[in-house]
Structure prediction request, 400 residues.
Amino acid sequence: MKALRLRPGKERSLLRRHPWVFDSAIAKGSGDAGETVRVESSEGQFLAWASTSPASKIRARAWSFVETQRIDAAFFQERVKKAVDARGLFDLQSDGVRLVHGEADGLPGLIVDRYGDTLVAQFLSAGVERWKPVLADALLAATGLSKLYERSDASGREREGLKPVTGWLRGEGDTAQVIREHAWRLSLDIATGHKTGFYLDQRDSRQRFAEMAQHRKFRRVLNCFCYTGGFTVAALAGLKAAGAIEGAELTSIDSSLPALDRARANLALNGFEGANAQFLDADVNASLRRFIEEGRTFDAIVLDPPKFAPTVAHAERAARAYKDINRLGLKLLAPGGVLLTFSCSGGIGADLFHKIVASAGIDAGVDGYISERLGAAPDHPMTIEFPEGEYLKGLVVVRK
Ligand code: SAH
Prediction:
């Protein structure tokens, strides 16, 4: 068995069960892509069994911190089963579920979502790439399903020196799916949609938005970065429950035409084709500026942009981009209106995000209450030992 020997002092994070080993922490030793190695302190003390990623700055990811643990097929079967079983502990209100959430489930680099009877997986590290056949079989065994589609085309693969791969890994079927979520249904395509096809992590924030729409009977709603219209459908579901769809105006913006086509289809799927809903194929920033010039205001605005800062290194430029759209969004908010503003950048912490929104408010000349903090749904868990796992954070701002 090969070993990675760390530099003095670099054992600390592994002792706290943080699963990453950066290249700068390694004194000597290496492994082939995805190979299991023994990670040891500068004095030779066992720290972890880990898979190596020779091409990545994150040079190794820990599988286990227990010296007697064997890293074999049985180990992966158990990890997968544990992750799948854990989802049964949450009341998710959906048949679209994240079953495996990488590091949080002890499987660094593996993402698995279930849409109805179909599984979609992303293998994003050399370690899970090497164990792919074992993991694929374990996923079918743990779920009792037979169809698994691979969407290993995320940018993280490149950093691992892996080529993009997509297609059926087990079984075969339709890539078009319809999932139930809370009181609505949403269609998606696992072959062409973003990530594995859909943004399951925002499920509970969509529900909160529906509840707010019902309670406050929004008249003018603006859903920015709407993708396939999830927050728009949620708002309409809330308005319907309040008997308040009539007279409500909903504007949804995205720069992806296929996403907007699907958003329209998703309204129809829920019986909202008669609603006063507009879909703009446009840049959000430019649209917000235009709305300000036109003197428009909104009772509810959602800002759910893509990841501006994939890593801490991009944080500064990303902070400016977040501040800019939040300044524009706050300006467009009617007094008493609500802004749901999100960042899904791992490189921007919750504190920093609050500060960014605070300075956007100062520049906009707008005061607000933060009435709620939002985060990823519980099937996208954070763990106590891996705070980096917190990526999605949201604030609900009510304009004073
Ligand atoms: N809120 C959505 C997910 C948003 S994902 C949901 O609940 O499902 C981010 C979206 O932003 C993507 O659909 C992407 O196409 C879009 N996007 C990225 N840059 C954009 C820009 N400059 N203007 C408009 N849309 C943009």
